[in-house]
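In response to reviewer comment 3 from the previous cycle, which asked for concrete evidence that the modeling workflow produces usable outputs, we include below a single protein chain processed end to end. The sequence was submitted unchanged, and the resulting structure tokens are shown without manual editing.
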Amino acid sequence: MNAAAPTSKEAIWAAATELFARQGYSGTTVRDIATAAGVDPALVMRHYGSKESLFLDTMTAALTGPPMFAGPAETLGEDVIEYVLGQHDQVRGVFLALVRASGADAIGPRLQSYHETAFVAPLRDRLTGPDAELRARLAAALVGGLLYALWVVEDTDLQADAPARVIHYYGALLQELITPGTTR
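The workflow returned the following structure tokens.
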């Protein structure tokens, strides 16, 4: 039996996810999305309200997967880095699209909200000891810095190094924020 054809809303979602990750927010128009989905541009707006909403919804949904902070606290640093790097193509496209669009008026506040709810708050809730809020924010900045070096600056030496080494060393840095004073 054949699978049902995607609905127009599903086709729009799939087209937007692919185009935003590949072309970025400013490089993708509602007309581009509609053409790729095989629908009228007005249908894109009817289903999703605005290009901004569709962008943020598709990009943040593309980053959801297994809970990033579900592992044991003692190995969470390496686990998080391994997760992020293991999702390389998907995370890279979404990260670059979000960074490039972060200056747009409607995008910035929603991106900040996503940052809080998807990274800072879940990690903060796992942390014990003093300065949990600060440590969670520093951890978010640390992970963002790695992604920036890899994909915005395109540090070729860092990209060429063995992923296991990057996970080990960067994971240890992150682990120090998660469980201060316990890293090996």
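The mean pLDDT is 85. We consider this sufficient to address the reviewer's concern, and the full set will be provided in the supplementary archive.
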